[in-house]
Amino acid sequence: MSVEQPLVSIIMPAYNAELHIAESIESVISQTYSNWELLITDDRSTDNTQQIINEYAIKDQRIRQFINEQNGGAGVARNNSIKQANGRFIAFLDADDLWLPEKLTKQISFMLTNNYAFTFTAYQKLEQGELRGTIKPPTFTNYNKLLSSNVIGCLTAVYDTNVLGKHYMPVIRKRQDMGLWLSLLKQVPKSYSLPDVLALYRVDSGMTQNKFKILKWQWLFYRNVLELNIFRATYHFFIYSVKGFLKHST
């Protein structure tokens, strides 16, 4: 393991991702930061996803494929990859999103230079191959702020296991990423952002398109997972809904 480039474990869940996963993997291979491993857990895809992953894994030993015994959702797939991870840093990239080439170089340097254990970055929307609005993060977030607004894009998040140990996502179908961020923010007071746009978030696939379902899952997350009382849940849900509307309208 390089002292200058600690190993980064990249966590990628995949399910019927044949349309975009090759491009996502290529965005990892194109990183200027070379000391990484890409851990892809397939959630029982029924298309050619597994074959595509296998072709890349044969060519590049830094890429490893795992297959869930049964379909369990993105959180279960991510947790399996986290379990297999050997890196100091844990990073996340879904099978339809993209990283820009300097993503790891800039973000890992940002973390090492400032001794930050948990960071995120700006990212830009991608729709039908065209670049759309940029999501600009606040300078930092903490546990209470994140409750009302999940400003951490999963495709930009990185945490340091040397400081935090390995953390896993709650085993729920939706909002697993926010559950993990809140867990990390119980150990460190803040997560800091790098303002550079370092990733592209595809908005025309999956759950991204269905805003009403997103709000439904958010409410259930407050009530059933975090077990907030009705008043506190309503307070955070209202703020979350307003901020979510403003973010998705950009």
Q: What's the short version?
A:
The chain has 250 residues and is α/β, with parallel strands linked by helices. The chain is built from nine helices and ten strands.
Assign the structural class, choosing from mainly alpha, mainly beta, alpha/beta, alpha+beta, or little secondary structure. Answer: alpha/beta
Cα radius of gyration in angstroms: 17 Å
CATH C-level label of the largest domain: Alpha Beta
Portion in beta strands: 15-25%
Distance between the termini: 41 Å
Number of helices: 9
Helix content: 25-40%
The major beta sheet can be summarized as:
10 strands, mixed
Instruction: Report the CATH topology name of the largest domain.
Output: Spore Coat Polysaccharide Biosynthesis Protein SpsA, Chain A
Shape, principal axes of CA atoms: globular
**CATH superfamily placement of the largest domain:** Spore Coat Polysaccharide Biosynthesis Protein SpsA, Chain A
Low-confidence stretches: none
Task: Give me the CATH architecture of the largest domain, please.
Answer: Alpha-Beta Complex
User: What is the succession of H and E elements?
Assistant: EHEHEHEEHEEEHEHHEHH
Total tally of structural domains: 2
Q: Quick check: average pLDDT?
A: 91
Question: Can you put this structure into words, describing what you see?
Answer:
The chain is an alpha/beta fold. The protein has two domains: 8-206, Spore Coat Polysaccharide Biosynthesis Protein SpsA, Chain A (Alpha-Beta Complex), CATH 3.90.550.10; 210-250. It has nine helices and ten strands. It has helices spanning 21-29, 49-59, 74-84, 103-114, 143-148, 161-164, 176-184, 211-225, 230-248; strands spanning 8-14, 36-42, 63-67, 89-92, 98-99, 118-127, 130-135, 140-141, 158-160, 191-202. Strands 1, 2, 3, 4, 5, 6, 7, 8, 9 and 10 form a ten-stranded mixed beta sheet that branches. α8 runs antiparallel to α9. The chain is globular, with a radius of gyration of 17 Å. 39% of the residues are buried. The mean pLDDT is 91.
